[in-house]
Design brief:
- The protein is mainly α.
- The chain has one domain.
- It contains nine helices and seven strands; from the N terminus they run H-H-H-E-E-H-H-H-H-E-E-H-E-E-E-H.
- The chain has a three-stranded mixed sheet, with no helix packed on it.
- A hairpin with a 2-residue loop joins strand 3 and strand 4.
- It starts with a helix and ends with a helix.
- About 13% of the residues have low confidence.
Length: 330
């Protein structure tokens, strides 16, 4: 009888051990599945947050425009495992980066752009709109999300149906007559720019806000106008389309005022226009532009993704009018 009881107890113990082991295994799988579901939910919500807050500077596929490109291999990873990357992105979004409120670009002697542009504070502790959960969500999306999700989540443009109301919502350009101002606004609207870009109180948020685009660059009016003309004509083929050096990554760039004879090198084809007509073909940096004397830090941010802006169909005359209007938006 004692042997039988011993066998029963032994069997029960092993059954208990087996049940506990099975429970732990299933519980581990359940916890892992919950964590994966939580990350998936964060990524989904992060895509919405990115579309509503970040697209205007970083682009709909993270290609970089006013802000640096985010669709980079260096930023990809598992939010639960790559803690350093997660903390870097989270902290940057929460605290922002120093710089100018309005985009400010400088052309370097290489023909590349450097930026002094600030990134706003998004964390609630600094007065921004995003709480901790929202910050974690957008960080998770940048690290592991599908960039193709974003385009369908961008808020619709604000475009009044009444044409006069629409044109009234657009600011007048400085230095233009009322007739030229109206014509510039009409080209901006009729050629579809208004669908992606905000000007004043109207427009879309797929592309950068152009309300003060005329003051972005510390170049003379003609030089900046040449760049804008080429960009509108065929943005897909314009090299150096956006900054690759960012002062807010590692403090101010070491800029110095050049001598009067400093120019963009003639052997830099990216400085010239890529379009057949090339309003700015062969142009040089004007005298007095602040160029970099040295660039040990910060390292340039690579721009490997093409711009999402398509070539804009319009006549050369319309493009001239549009550029004059944009240059006057101060």
């Amino acid at each position: 009888m004692g042997a039988r009881k011993y066998i029963i107890v032994t069997v029960l113990v092993w059954l208990l051990i087996g049940s506990w082991a099975l429970y732990l295994a299933l519980e581990g799988q359940r916890i892992a599945a919950m964590e994966e579901a939580h990350v998936a939910d964060l990524i989904s919500r992060g895509a919405v947050i990115y579309a509503e807050n970040c697209v205007v500077c970083h682009g709909p596929i993270g290609e970089g425009v006013v802000g640096p490109p985010l669709n980079r291999e260096a930023f990809r990873g598992n939010p639960l495992e790559d803690k350093d990357t997660f903390d870097l992105i989270y902290t940057t979004v929460a605290r922002g980066r120093p710089g100018t409120a309005t985009p400010r670009w400088e052309m370097l002697s290489t023909g590349e752009w450097a930026s002094y542009t600030a990134m706003p504070v998004f964390g609630v502790e600094g007065g921004g709109p995003l709480n901790e959960q929202a910050l974690r969500a957008v960080t998770s999306f940048i690290m592991q999300g599908d960039w193709s999700m974003v385009s369908g989540l961008i808020p619709p443009p604000v475009i009044p149906e009444d044409r006069e109301e629409l044109l009234a919502g657009m600011p007048d350009a400085v230095g233009l007559s009322p007739e030229l101002n109206r014509r510039g606004k009409e080209v901006f609207v009729d050629r579809g720019c208004i669908t992606c870009h905000t000007v004043g109180s109207v427009g879309g948020s797929t592309g950068p806000d152009l309300s003060r685009v005329g003051s972005w660059v510390a170049l003379d009016r003609e030089h900046w106008g040449n760049f804008l003309w080429d960009w509108i004509a065929n943005p897909q083929e314009v090299e150096n389309r956006a900054p690759v050096y960012w002062s807010n990554y590692a403090g101010p760039l070491p800029f110095a005022q050049p001598a009067a004879d400093v120019r963009v090198p003639e052997d830099k084809p990216e400085v010239a226009a890529a379009t057949p007509r090339g309003r700015g073909a062969g142009r040089r940096a004007p005298e007095g532009v602040a160029l970099a004397a040295a660039l040990e830090t910060p390292q340039p941010v690579p721009i490997t993704l093409p711009t999402q802006m398509p070539p804009m169909p319009m006549t050369d005359e319309e493009r001239d009018i549009l550029v004059e209007y944009l240059l006057g938006l101060q």
